[in-house]
Amino acid sequence: MLEEKLVIGVTDCSKYERYRDWILAQHPSVEVKQLKAGVSTSDDIRNCKGIVLTGGEDVHPRFYNRPELYEYCYKDDVSEERDDFELNLLKQVEAEGIPLLGICRGLQIANVYFGGTLIPDIPSWGKFNHSKFPDNSDRYHAVQVDPNSALHKIVLQAEGEINSNHHQSADRIGNGLVVAALSSDGVVEALEKTGKGNDSFLCLVQWHPERMKDQQSNFAKNLRDAFYKACLR
After folding, report:
1. What is the pTM of this model?
2. Spatial CA neighbour of 45 closest among 100, 111, 106
3. Domain tally for the chain?
4. CATH number at residue 57
5. By C-alpha distance, which of 123, 90, 92 is closest to 204?
6. Would you name the residues annotated as active-site residues?
7. Per-residue model confidence as pLDDT tens digits over 177-217
8. Is residue 1 part of a domain?
């Protein structure tokens, strides 16, 4: 009898293949399923043993009841259809206890799902520029990890260096979430659940572990390993 493949869902985005290949690089026996607005069903989500929420478009501020902040978004980089799909996906993930790894936009849409809000444009809010350089390469900067966090148990470091390519970030933190890492200027770099015990795995990071230059970094390799182990449970 053939062993059933472990299915991990990865939400669709313009760089979907990077996330897919990042999972498969360490775990080639996994089946990666692309989850896409207007195509994927609740059964597709239910069949996944874990889900990666990928980066991409700005989250429309109407989803966190601040539609007036739309002027700070990149107008050509907003997809309300994707927002709506991923918010419904998060509802199912929470109801069914599916392990979730949120990356960049994944952190932002998850924070909105839990009732939080976003800074729609970080430089306009008086903080350092966290977006990519003009040559399209990622920035790199230091990050501080809460030594009492679940994230610290994963990366095993109180500080490190991560890549950065975003202009939105978490502002008011969603219900049941807590900040696990910060940049030096106070931008939220990771969120996790406050609860203990039987809560399903939920790790939300603002950096891009799938494309860090050092794939052996604890901020890339250890995250993938922890997520994979949660999918096996």
Report:
1. 0.95
2. 100
3. 1
4. 3.40.50.880
5. 90
6. 104, 208, 210
7. 999 999 999 999 999 999 755 578 999 999 999 999 999 99
8. no
